[in-house]
Specification:
Elements: E1 29-31, E2 44-49, E3 62-67, H1 92-103, E4 108-113, H2 123-136, E5 141-144, H3 155-165, E6 169-173, E7 196-202, E8 226-229, E9 231-233, E10 239-242, H4 248-265, H5 271-280, H6 289-292, H7 299-308, E11 311-312, E12 315-316, E13 319-322, E14 325-326, E15 333-334, E16 339-358, E17 365-367, E18 370-383, E19 391-401, E20 408-417, E21 421-426, H8 442-451, E22 453-458, H9 466-470, E23 474-478, E24 484-485, E25 494-495, H10 501-512, E26 517-520, H11 529-536, E27 541-543, E28 554-555, E29 558-559, E30 562-564, E31 566-567, E32 579-581, E33 586-588, E34 593-603, E35 609-621, E36 627-631, H12 639-642, H13 651-662
Parallel strand pairs: 2-4, 2-5, 3-4, 5-6, 6-7, 7-8, 14-20, 15-20, 21-22, 21-23, 23-26, 26-36
Antiparallel strand pairs: 1-3, 9-10, 11-12, 13-16, 16-18, 16-19, 17-18, 19-20, 24-25, 27-33, 28-29, 30-32, 31-34, 34-35, 35-36
Length: 666
């Protein structure tokens, strides 16, 4: 940690620290000056992408290039050329570079090729490209119009953090998996990292494209950071391609323009300052911050912002906090239930910011008084209104200040309601980024809120205590023991969280003391069935190592499901004619009983046809009016199910009736 009066210097070879990450492998590298302005006068953007095939507008802009498509970096092919590999027959890297140069004709380009013609890039390839750019080129900005689903392990995150610490601005496409918000959290790696400027895609009218990745992240951090036009146009102005890939280079070009502004005024700059200025000056859009971040890129406003903020030691002191308003439109706040707000701060340099809470609900806020920021920082505060009645028009105004910075504010305005019940979403044994009230269970969370049922997330094992569980009317254990591919060790295969004996004893104690449980599993391709059964076997129930249906088809990103119509008479199935299923069947003994089943037909090697019933939902009732439901799929609860995008129109009714039955409301 550095004292507040020490500044992190701008990008430059002279300030590289002694700990250098060594690059290895043999690939072609060329330094090709093209008679441009000196690098000190012309900011350089590194395009880490599919390579670049120089057009008339690019041939004089490329100053350095190298391919990382090499078997030593995990590729199945070796390609030493730096021309565009045209993944899916699209000259992707060329488009990205052209947008950057058209947006800012003064920039120069570094071409780092990591994507093959099969639209594949390896983690090692991307990491090596970033390290090469930082160590061996004069690029001040890295554009990453690529991404993958977030995975566990931190090697890429550490490289991103390191590049940022060396004074490099990192801009990343938010991702194209938004599916009009139905996926919930859909920001991709590397855009999820705090140091990266995650860019959403909007059209020419300022409307968010349906495909654009959305947040918030599972850890409640707001992403994307900003939005920009996500269209590539050819020389005639015809729209050719769409995506967040084509929004990111506009932000990269704007960052380069801010660096030029600083250079021309003799100002110093840092990546945190560039990010703060871009976000603080963004234009408002008719969308929420978890969809478009701070708003639409506005370069002129960003320049004016830097000109007007205080200066210290030749640094423009820019800062920005996000979100500026809370709660989000899908959230509902209840009395005696904790709601956590997580904020990100971006600033020119390291500083301690002081937090002051004011307003009619300030007495119900629990939060820190100061937060230390070294260009980026995160802090949280919680709202817990202790009351026996509802309240309207409550407000908290959070003021965030530090010497030399303009004061920032976060406004929280809300009504608070009395819940009919409170249920916990136990996410302690799933590592999937989509498993949260912000992810694939957002619609489930909204449905329960509309019914007056409050939801509290249990995220860490340290939160798994008997006192915490007993404060809830029921606990939903969602996706226990999910498989995860760890990029920390690319040869390690899959891993999953496992239950400890103490945790198993805790759930057993909770049940025996009168607690109710809702266990939601999947088949063994998604969760570690054996590990999950360590818990279920305590109640004489187990998941099977099968999959219903055995085959599936994915159309427009939506998988096919089996329609379950075999429903036993029960409180949870009242008025329900069917529900969707993609998961495993169940076994049960003792006092457990079947709630739903399906018929499976199979043919043996002699051609004989067999039909058997498979249990897919089980119930159990304790002697203290406690109840349990176990189901081998989450496809009746996810956002697609509750918005009727599978086959059944009864998923929502079944979901809320299960919760109401577990909590004793029916």
């Amino acid at each position: 940690m550095q004292p507040d009066n020490e500044l992190v210097p701008r990008r430059g070879k002279a300030i590289l620290i002694a700990t250098i990450i060594i690059t290895t492998g043999v690939t072609v590298s060329a330094f090709l000056p093209r008679g441009l302005l000196p690098l000190s006068s012309a900011p350089c953007i590194a395009v880490i992408d599919s390579g670049i095939s120089p057009s008339n507008g690019l041939s004089t802009r490329i100053v350095s290039e190298r391919s990382f498509v090499n078997s030593s970096y995990g590729y199945s092919v070796n390609d030493e050329t730096t021309s565009d590999s045209k993944p899916n027959d699209v000259p992707h890297g060329t488009y990205v570079a052209e947008i950057a140069v058209r947006t800012n004709p003064h920039v120069q380009i570094v071409n780092a090729k990591v994507i093959t013609s099969e639209n594949h890039a390896t983690l090692q390839g991307v990491m090596q490209a970033i390290m090469w750019v930082v160590n061996e080129t004069d690029a001040t900005i890295i554009n990453l119009s690529l991404g993958s689903m977030p995975t566990s392990g931190k090697p890429l995150q550490e490289v991103i953090e390191w590049a940022f610490s060396q004074g490099v601005v990192l801009v990343a496409a938010a991702g194209n998996g938004g599916q009009n918000g139905l996926r919930g959290s859909s920001i991709e790696t590397p855009a999820i990292f705090q140091e990266a400027i995650a860019v959403a895609a909007i059209d020419s009218s300022g409307a968010l494209f349906p495909f654009s990745g959305r947040g918030p992240l599972r850890n409640r951090i707001i992403k994307p950071d900003i939005a920009a036009l996500g269209i590539y146009e050819d020389a005639s102005g015809r729209e050719v391609a769409y995506g967040t890939s084509f929004a990111a280079p506009r932000v990269s070009a704007a960052a380069a323009a801010l660096i030029s502004l600083c250079d021309s005024n003799g100002w110093k700059w840092t990546p945190g300052m560039i990010k703060a200025a871009l976000l603080a000056s963004a234009s408002h859009l008719a969308a929420e911050s978890w969809e478009v971040g701070a708003g639409q890129l506005d370069l002129n406003a960003a320049k004016a912002h830097l000109e007007n903020v205080p200066k210290r030691n030749s640094y423009p002191m820019a800062a920005y906090v996000m979100p500026e308003e809370f709660p989000y439109d899908f959230e509902r706040i209840f009395v005696n239930v904790t709601t956590t707000v997580t904020c990100s701060i971006f600033a020119t340099t390291n500083a301690t910011f002081h937090l002051s809470y004011m307003g009619s609900a300030a007495s119900w806020i629990r939060g820190i008084d100061t937060v230390y920021v070294n260009q980026t920082g995160v802090f949280s505060f919680s709202i817990r209104v202790i009351s026996s009645q509802s309240h309207e028009n409550l407000e908290v105004l959070l003021s965030i200040s530090s010497p030399d910075y303009l004061t920032m504010r976060v406004k929280t305005a809300f009504d608070v309601h009395v819940p009919i019940a409170t249920i916990g979403f136990d996410l302690t044994h799933t590592v999937w980024p989509i498993d949260s009230v912000y992810g694939q269970f957002r619609s489930f969370y909204e449905t329960l809120g509309e019914l007056g049922v409050a939801v509290e997330e249990i995220r860490g094992s340290d939160e798994l205590t008997f006192t915490r569980l007993k404060s809830l009317d029921a606990v939903a254990i969602l996706d226990p023991c999910t498989w995860s591919y760890s990029n920390a060790d690319l040869n390690s295969g899959t891993t999953s969280p496992l239950y400890t004996v103490d945790e198993l004893d805790l759930y057993t104690e909770y049940w025996e003391d009168g607690g109710s449980l809702f266990v939601v599993g999947l088949d063994n391709s998604s969760i570690n069935v054996g590990a999950a059964n360590k818990l279920l076997s305590r109640f004489h129930i187990t998941f099977n190592y099968d999959c219903i249906p055995e085959t599936r088809i994915v159309l427009n990103g939506i998988p096919s499901t089996r329609l379950i119509t075999g429903l036993e008479p029960h409180a949870v199935t009242l008025g329900v004619s069917s529900f969707d299923y993609l998961g495993c069947s169940l076994n049960y003994t003792g006092d457990a009983y079947e709630i739903a089943y399906t018929q499976i037909s199979r043919q043996d090697e002699d051609g004989l046809l067999y039909v058997e019933n498979k249990t897919v939902m089980v119930g159990l009732e304790g002697d203290k009016q406690n109840r349990m439901v176990v189901v081998g799929t989450n496809f009746l609860l996810d956002n697609y199910a509750l918005n009727e995008l599978y086959e059944s129109s009864d998923n929502k009714r079944l979901a809320y009736r299960i919760v109401l039955w577990l909590t004793g409301e029916i």
